[in-house]
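SECTION: protein entry
WANTED: fold as tokens:
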Amino acid sequence: MSDVRMIDLDDLVLDDENPRLPNSVNRSQEEMIDYIATSTSLEDLMSAISQNGFFNGEPLIAIPDANAKGKFKIVEGNRRLTSVKLILDPSLCSKPSSRMKQISADNKHKFDKLPVIVKDKREDVLPYLGFRHITGIKQWEPLSKARYIEQLFNYTNKKLKPSERYSEVAKIIGSRRDHIKRNLDALAVYKKIEDEDFYDIDGLDEKSIKFAVLSTALADEKLGAFVGVDDVIDGEYVSSNPIVDPSSLKKDRIKELTQWLYLKDKDGNTKVGESRNLRQLAAVVNNTRALQQFRDGAALTVAYQLTSDLSDDFLELLYQAETLMIEAAGMVANVEFNSSAYDVAKRINKNIKMIGKELAEKERGDDDF
């Protein structure tokens, strides 16, 4: 990226715009160090640096600190910088572990200067971060990724259409436009959830929320339209852009979706259950009668019975059964008699007749099956 410079440790500061930092963490150097030290299992990294020295082949990446002349803000490498600082002074952490103290006591390196690549401005570094942490091998957790994507999005030309800005971000980090939009849509909804203090759901906060579940849910057009990240115009789904204009978001429905996804009953289960059930939830919110049943307390599987998607599932099962029966029919002439197989065949025959009878009755009048 650029030439490496050796810069005094005292002139290197942590990044207060680090996407991995929760909003609840104060952006002072002390509190950022304390958070990284206590929440990211730093001891192994500290030990490796203490034993082997700082690897010059992987320098920190920084930009000049606009608020402190002569200082450099580390945009890439905050955990490594924190590790070095704690090796030299574990008291920088409010509750240093005994292992941290031992690593510091055993350290034989000075670390007075560290290798740093200095870029002029943050936007010069962001594409590299995207390659490394979004599509690369050292990927961040989903919420951090979304915050990083927002940073990159905010540097694009605001005069362009949102869809064009999504494409710009996608090109920079080697992703797809729909992936960028999905992350930013989910982040816009997440911000509403955070603003409402996570609707007082016990145990739900910035650290515990499964952002990937929210992102996956909103990728479905029906659920997206339900909360306002998509619109429905003349029966067609049309994208809105809540990261640019949050006014499209439907606050009451965001609350409902959050409770369905994250609020647990006494047995530790949510109303939606596993993420594979999101398809059923999408069908439910798209059906007025099913949605009302679900809101009134019906289980998701019960409410789903009222949707048209159930007919599609039923037909798919019949196609699958037909495929298997054709395969079995091709084998039956070459297998020996087996009483268990015969019993299974009789049960299949019974169920086929029952299904045929039910369908014939629904057709009203045609009972010849």
Notes: The mean pLDDT is 90.
